[in-house]
Amino acid sequence: MASLIFENQELPSPAPVESEAPAASPADGNGKPRRGRVTAESLASKQREISVSEFFAKNRHLLGFDNPRKALLTTVKEAVDNALDACEEAGLLPDIWVRIEGLAENRFRVSVQDNGPGIIKKQIPLIFGKLLYGSKFHRLRQSRGQQGIGISAAGMYGLLTTGRPVSIVSRTGPKKPVHFYQIQIDTKHNRPEIVNGKGEGVDIPPNDGAAEFLREHQLHWQDVEHGTLVAIELEAKYQRGRGSVDEYLEQTAIANPHVTLYYRDPDGKAHDYPRVAESLPAEPKEIKPHPYGVELGTLITMLKDSKSGTLGRFLTESFSRISPAVAKRIAQAAALSIRANPKRLGRTQAEALFHALQNEKVQSPAVDCLSPIGEELILRGMRQMVPGEFYTAVTRPPAVYRGNPFQVEVGLTYGGGPATYRVSRELLEELLAETDARTLRQFLTTTFDGVGPEGADKLLREARLRARMSPGRLKTRERDQLFEALRRVNLSEGQTMNVLRYANRVPLLFQAGACAITQTVMSTNWRAYGLAQSRNALPAGPVTLMVHIASVWVPFTSESKEAVAGYPEIQKELRLAFQAVGRRLGMYLRRRNQVKAQGERRNIFLRYLREVADAVAVIRGVDRDEIHAHLMQVAKRVTAAADMQLDEHGNPIVEDGEEDFAGPVLIVPPAESAVPVSAEKRPGEVQSRLFTDE
Asked: Above pLDDT 90, what percent of the chain?
């Protein structure tokens, strides 16, 4: 390396070495200690195996535990996701109890219980005390969890920050005992350690007061016939607003309308989200890998581990959509015998087989491995949680990326105003006290969905407050001014689109900028559908966009599962879904604007028709009332669009009731909207004053 760097430079000749040189000084010429020589044997003595638990203990930010606030959310998310998966696989309508208790400053206990099938005794330590242990990694079917890391990593984080083990309570039947474990993970060996019951846990017999016994250990066990409770004590920070536990649970209720959530926050306040659907989603089925998704190294490993006696059986048993006839064509294209032993194929033969698999036209994989939410349930979920006046949803046909089936669903809500209208004075006080924002402008943009920089400036001007003021140091009068501005200012024009991202029904609350969903939203031309939009930015308007990706393997950008990778096939389906809901929104906005424009035109006619009738009556000597009546009929005819009424599906109410939105649409009457009347001028108010003499 040195000879390459200095080959064009003239180097001085080295000084001759004295035969009896003095002993080397412990320091070199610049005063630093001279580095001693290290042998290969000494290097080898320092090398050792690193367990996966030890690696993630030092790199916990990869799993979503990079700050106390996010750690609290990740813990709740992993526990709730596991509870929902367990209930759905058992065919039970989920009931989930979530409780967060404040124990000290920046120290909380999170407990999540479900009414699922429970966990058998010998599996409890492995599930909660061993990383990369689970049943979902090798299955190709839609599920919330994928890697077997989440809940055990949350317990490991709690152990690292508080030194307290994870508490697990599980019951598999009404006549079965209640299993109670306290587990901590041995990070050096990635194995569980049971710390109660002399290393074997505790079994509470049925009908023996399990709730009272567990209450002594600060566990709030709901007396269910079967279910699981996990409690983790951790160092965290609870904060409301964007990216909080409250927001996660609200969004979970939207994408899972069949779930009932009972939530108790650290202040003891109850937030319950009842289910709006009484049926479970269709159960996804497990499928085999598709040949288009396999790579050469994976194929070689599959050939070596195969238990099939022939190549034909290997192809039909290892891959989906390969029939015996297709397997024969693949073998012929690879110049291999259909009766060849797959274990004896060399690397060259395996590579030929790989190319034959990729070149053969194989039918797309089956889509019964997916369980989409459905357009009707998306509308019902958004109607319950997101206030608005126009709702629509679309479910795209299944598609494939790298041999993995996936499906895109999008729901859109227009109107309803930003989240600032729903803020009470008490909640504002709590948000100001809990925020870590440095300036008031930053507090407004990061706390409330849909409030962009322009909206924040508008609120600050109305409240007569400076943008760089500290939120935590506002005086009582300044807080009153801010609260009144939140209630009074209409932010519909400056409001930015609120994007709710989901993957397999799980909300994604962080890394929005790195997610393919957000990037595709910004690259879509929303101006064609009546929304204002700057280049490469989210569109402006009172719009909430829900985006759901269902797949057997969601391509997350990291182990924390917060952003979806930008595969071209996924972005194409997203764009087509956005265009579908955008066309319906544009049709609704054009009709609404037409009604408003014709109403304003009619108001101008009404302002002068009486005077025109009086003048004509004087000039022609005719009856004034008769002339006025004729002019009113003409005004009504030329502004007939102002009388157009839309049904709940957004279609004009005509005799044949023809629908032309080409998809499910729900329009809510203005009286049912959650936005205060003073905050927005409604077209209905204009129409109610038409054809009056006042």
From this structure: 27
